[in-house]
Design a protein that fits this description.
Length: 174
């Protein structure tokens, strides 16, 4: 009888440990993530302008709430925004960002360009993990950063960022 109780207790412990282990493993696996990004300015802008374009240098801050807590937190960014007067003030953005998660940070770049109607600002980016996230990459797309709670979809995976420069060689314009 004692052997049966020990075997039963051992089975329960293994089941609990196995369950806990699989929960931890699920959080450390590659994932498709969704969520929201609420962004705004985090300080004063620097503006340089002439008759054809305006350059804005802006500090930005986003609250990122994703389905995976590893890529949720506060994202601080430096935005370089170039707006073209001849194109009805359409703008291009180059963004460098640091997203502070619960156990480390994500560092990288993003880009954005107004849609043709100038009513939406889709964005995309790739951030590389540091600290507990070392060796991980988060690539994402936000449908419209002009929306106060922009919907975000992304991929979180273990491995290096995509080799954009090697995969898509660009030739100089003629």
């Amino acid at each position: 009888m004692r052997v049966l109780r020990l075997a039963l207790a051992g089975t329960v412990v293994l089941t609990l440990l196995g369950g806990l282990g699989s929960g931890a493993l699920a959080q450390e696996s590659d994932a498709h993530v969704t969520g929201t990004m609420a962004c705004g300015l985090a300080g004063d802008s620097t503006v340089v302008a002439d008759e054809s374009l305006t350059l804005y240098l802006d500090p930005g801050r986003c609250t990122v709430t994703m389905s995976d807590p590893r890529v949720s937190g506060v994202m601080d960014s430096d935005l370089q925004e170039v707006c073209f007067e001849d194109l009805n003030h359409a703008c291009l953005f180059h963004i460098t960002s640091v997203l502070t998660g619960p156990d480390g940070t994500w560092v990288g770049t993003a880009g954005s360009i107004h849609d043709a109607s100038l009513t939406a600002l889709p964005a995309w980016g790739t951030l590389v993990g540091t600290g507990a996230y070392e060796g991980w990459t988060f690539t994402f797309h936000a449908s419209n950063l002009m929306d106060a709670t922009a919907e975000v979809s992304g991929i979180l995976y273990e491995g290096p960022p995509p080799p954009w420069a090697e995969a898509v060689p660009l030739a100089p314009a003629e």
